[in-house]
Amino acid sequence: VNIATEMESSGPPRRPEEKKSELAPDVASTTKKTRVDRQASATIGTTSREEVKDKDAREHLVNKPLLDRLWQAPVLRQVWGVEQESEKIDWFELFYDLIYVALAINLSNFLASNSNGEGIATAVIYFAMLFFAWNSLTIFVSRFHQVDMFATIMQFIYSAVVVSMAIYVLEPIRDSAHKFSFAFLVSRGCLVAMYGQVALLVPRARVFGKIAVIGNTMSAILFAIATIDAVPTGATIILWLLAAYPVELGWMTVMYTRPEASLPINVEHMSERYGLFVMLMLGESVIAIVTDATKTRSQDWVIIFCGFLLVYTNKLLYFESQPHQPEQHALRQATWRGRIYQYTHMVLGMSLVGIGTGIKLLKKDVDYSKHHATPTTYRLLTYSLVVFHVSNNIIRLTHKFKNRSLLIWATRLVFIVIIGLFPVMAPEIEPWVLPVAYALFNLCLTLIDAGSGVVKVGRRNKTKNRTRTHPEREREHPSILSSLPFLPSSSEL
């Protein structure tokens, strides 16, 4: 490249008659590009013509006619060696999340009507499976951007399946087990088709797509077995959980142990997706507070105001504990940190649904003029809040903060223990006292976080998927780094 540049700068100026025709190919630029490709092949490795296509070269697909967009290659959201910038949430992702608002409301209604041990266990199983459905599609959408009609059809079918699940959660598992299994079977079929398209049309993600197809096919087989009427309910639940988590973690682990299959993620996009999921569950609590809030008694207003303060401080405790620099995020540290970060959100989301349901049941206790909160309501609200704080602090630990104060963590632990022992220390208490006490505890924890200085808002810098490629070569050939057929063995996640 430098030799060609020197020759062009030192050579005599061209005469008008020597200028190339507009219809002739640009020989100079072609020669220059060929030399760059040869130098890149000598430096990094030989790549095919399809594998060195830049991501931006496929962005013209959105301007193609409708018929030409029926079947097009997905676009990688993030590639190695390219600066990570803020990826906007797609409209489909926002629409898809709206379904989970309705789902959380229905699950809360089921839990309010079945707040015994069996009902709580059923709600937990339902939520674990529904989070699995949400997370599976999020993993795909966070890596690939699709613009063709095939993807639109698959997304519609997947969303319709989740809508059916939102209806089934109003029934006990013994009544909806086979219907739930069939819905999950259809959702796995959609993912197999979408990952199959990736394996066929995206050379850089071919191995990733093949592994994902195999993993989702294994899950689909387990869900297909669960649809058989002869399978008892207990075995169906076991098949669900096996298909959802061990199989999912298995193929994801295989993928991350193979460098040629690894694909980078956009940290800001993924963290926003999980933040939106938490916001949806918080929204269910707000709906529980404002529903039937037409009473004028003082106890009702205390529960409404302090319940909202409890939900708002939960929001502060979660979002203010997230790092503002992508380098500190769990998704940029290690694979096991990322897995803990992802699946702890399942526990945290279920705890938020439990808090909203507990507030709803407290309002019922006041309506029935009960002088003491019922034990079921008491325990549900208390232990849901404890689970929220424990899971939120686990998520906090997965991030890489430079300063961790032992005193701050000990204080947090003391507050969590006090909340957990509250039903033992005060077994009989009026309903309106609970949200007041727990809102004050949350407010104290929020003030502790605000004064600890652990989370500092810094400058939002663009970050790179770091490689050990020579910095001069990285500046000269950014498109080559973004089009590698495999992840360099020296790269860091």
Structure description:
With 493 residues, the chain is mostly helical. The protein has three domains: 1-46; 59-265, no CATH class; 271-454, no CATH class. The protein is built from 17 helices and four strands. It has helices spanning 2-10, 27-43, 91-113, 117-141, 149-168, 173-201, 206-226, 233-244, 246-257, 267-290, 298-319, 335-367, 375-398, 406-425, 433-452, 471-476, 478-481, and strands at residues 75-76, 83-84, 144-145, 463-464. The strands form two sheets. Strands 1-3 form a two-stranded antiparallel ribbon. Helix 3 crosses helix 12. It is globular and about 65 Å long.
How do the strands and helices of this protein lay out in sequence?
Elements: H1 2-10, H2 27-43, E1 75-76, E2 83-84, H3 91-113, H4 117-141, E3 144-145, H5 149-168, H6 173-201, H7 206-226, H8 233-244, H9 246-257, H10 267-290, H11 298-319, H12 335-367, H13 375-398, H14 406-425, H15 433-452, E4 463-464, H16 471-476, H17 478-481
